Amino acid sequence: MQPLRLCRSLLFLPASNPRAIEKARGLPADLIILDLEDAVKEEDKESARIAAVEAARQGFGGKLVAIRVNADIGHHFGEDAVAVRASGADFVVLPKAETAKKVQDAASLSQKPVLAMIETAAGVLAAREIAAHTAGLIAGTNDLSADLGLPAGGGRSGLVHALQSIVLAARAQGVAAFDGVFNGLDDADGMAAECLEGRAYGFDGKSVIHPNQIDAANRFFGPSDAEIAAADRLIAAATGGAERHEGRMIESMHVVQARAVLAKARR
Ligand SMILES: CC(C)(COP(=O)(O)OP(=O)(O)OC[C@H]1O[C@@H](n2cnc3c(N)ncnc32)[C@H](O)[C@@H]1OP(=O)(O)O)[C@@H](O)C(=O)NCCC(=O)NCCSC(=O)C[C@H](O)C(=O)O
Ligand SMILES: [Mg+2]
Fold it and tell me: Which protein residues touch ligand 1 with a CB less than 6 Å away?
């Protein structure tokens, strides 16, 4: 399985915040995303770019690292993407992706695999073509809610079609799919519910914005002990073709699913 598909938690932090960068080095997130876009004030854009490159050069204790560039062509995007090339980042994150061409530009300027954020209606409709040029897709649920005109605080029912389209597009191209952020900073129950929902939609992991959200993402997107034990039993029992196992029919695709559970558990 592609290593990126084993990531459960993607921690965003503003590259303009040295304290958060330092803190992230000791946090159990699977992928660190140093943000140059919406989390960074306009006057801090250039110093944040320098800080992101340096932070990625120093690394995060072996964790995967990405830098999210600004989206606007000709205004930060080019300089950000070229800076990522010289950094030690594993990926470049392209926000507000709407065309395969923009993804190719990000890849060519940064010389890094792209994680494209789908966060507009146009992005959702082009997700399949976009995914073909990426290592994975990330749902940008705040921007998407705004772009779709959804009422603030109205839950995610208006996003369901878009979220499932993102997972479908990623799977059709064989790349990773990550759910968006949960904005409630002190709402553990809400975070847990959204993790369960995202997992049920088929996402590989979830974007998080605060240290206190990482454990929930890791727990809900990592297989439970019961799932691991069930996968072990299924693989041991399967002999090929349709057969009865623990009161259910299983076939070869269930063995593939069980192996994926064990691969994620090993990670
Ligand atoms: C949201 C925050 C601004 C909240 O900040 P604050 O209230 O100051 O946090 P705390 O005091 O509770 O922080 C406690 C300690 O944890 C550290 N911290 C906080 N957040 C992070 C983080 N993301 N990574 C690493 N460390 C973090 C603090 O430094 C404190 O440490 P200590 O000093 O030791 O006590 C803040 O959490 C934050 O900035 N979060 C990230 C925001 C961000 O990156 N946003 C951009 C990506 S999300 C997005 O854009 C969505 C998408 O595009 C869409 O459209 O949906
Ligand atoms: Mg966004």
Answer: 11-14, 19-20, 23-24, 35, 38-39, 95, 119, 140-143, 180-181, 185, 209-211
